[in-house]
Amino acid sequence: MLLHEFIVANRADIIRRTSDKAAQRTSPPATEGDATSEGVPFVVDQLVATLRGAVLNDEIVDAATRRGVHMHRSGYTVAQVVRGYGDVCQAVTEIAMESGAPITVNEFHTLNLYLDEVIADAVTEYQRTRDVAVAARDNAHLGDFAHELRNRINTATLSFSILRAGTVPIGGSTGGVLERSLIGLTELIDRALSEVRLATTPTEGDHILLAQFIEEVEVAALLEAQASTHRMRFSKVAPEVTIQGDRHLLAAAVGNLLQNAFKFTPADGLVTLRARVTHDAVWIDVEDECGGLPPGKSEELFRPFVQRGSDRSGLGLGLSITKKAVELYGGELSVRDIPGVGCVFTVKLPRMADVATESSALAADGGLLAEPIASLIVPAPE
User: Fold this and answer.
1) CATH number for the domain harbouring residue 352
2) What's the whole-model pTM score?
3) Are 289 and 269 a contacting pair, CB within 8 Å?
4) DSSP string of 76-109?
5) Which of 31, 63, 89, 316 yields a CA-CA distance of 20 to 30 A from 213?
6) Is the pLDDT of residue 355 over 60?
7) In this predicted structure, what is the pLDDT of residue 1?
8) Is the dihedral of CA 233, 289, 145, 184 positive or negative?
9) What is the pLDDT of residues 94-146, one digit of tens each?
10) What CATH number is attached to the domain comprising 12?
11) C-beta of residue 45 within 8 angstroms of C-beta of residue 36
12) Shortest CA distance to 225 belongs to which of 257, 271, 182?
């Protein structure tokens, strides 16, 4: 029996075994295309046609190119593109050996030439499709950033022109619009700088005293609370607790959470910043009074360009940047919904070695060092 006849006779078993191999590895779930035009059955049929000599080289290239595009759009990695073809070859070889069906040298040579050709073409097209998608996303991101920047500058310029005419007081509504525009400009620039730091900052980081870090974040939060007429509550932590990371990146991460809290909490609402500590971890919570999250929306919040609520200002990158910054130093970012009230965003970071104290010994037994040790409520400005 020739190899192509053997493959036709065992087609169902080859497809099943190939699919089983793919399922044993971490991969995206199968899509409709995996079972039809660009999936394993299609690859097997192309292989049969090639062994028969019924497929021209251009047709093989076209088929591999389509598969590369399909694999990229389905969310597969380039390694999975390569392994997918290799799984087909391995399944054919295993079944042939188990059934005692011989594969001639020429047939095996043709099989390897086919795999070499289609893998190269599929990977090339996969990379090209991915590069196009990345370029389009980056261009869209840059366009969104420029659009937001222009809007803030235009609003600030108009407000300044009105104030300069002297017809309205600086402390009135127009002055408030100017202030909010300047704050928005600062946020946009800070987030752009955070993205640059994420791409260039070493992962080792510095040792940071948590108490000093929280105090620095508090200063910026107080200014934000005063500008947005919110109340703030802080907790204090033991002075010896240490974390590791880039101070600016982590401050931007927590700052993004606070900015979101102010953005979605009604005026005069309460925003809470607290730290909790155990012997091996640090939790930094930012709790708001946004009213809660829609069902099933928690995971979507951490995707780039996804925004909460009806306020569409900004780029939708804050939580995505925060997640990347936290994970860069071995941490985790999570959210807990409090239906009808608000939500709690939590940054969890590894705790570094610090000075042994009595409170540290208590923490070793599972106790929390700060829940909170002390609390300070800052009223909203009248």
Assistant:
1) 3.30.565.10
2) 0.50
3) yes
4) --HHHHHHHHHHHHHHHHHHHHHHT----HHHHH
5) 316
6) no
7) 66
8) negative
9) 888 888 877 777 777 777 777 776 776 767 777 777 777 766 666 666 666 67
10) 1.10.490.70
11) no
12) 271
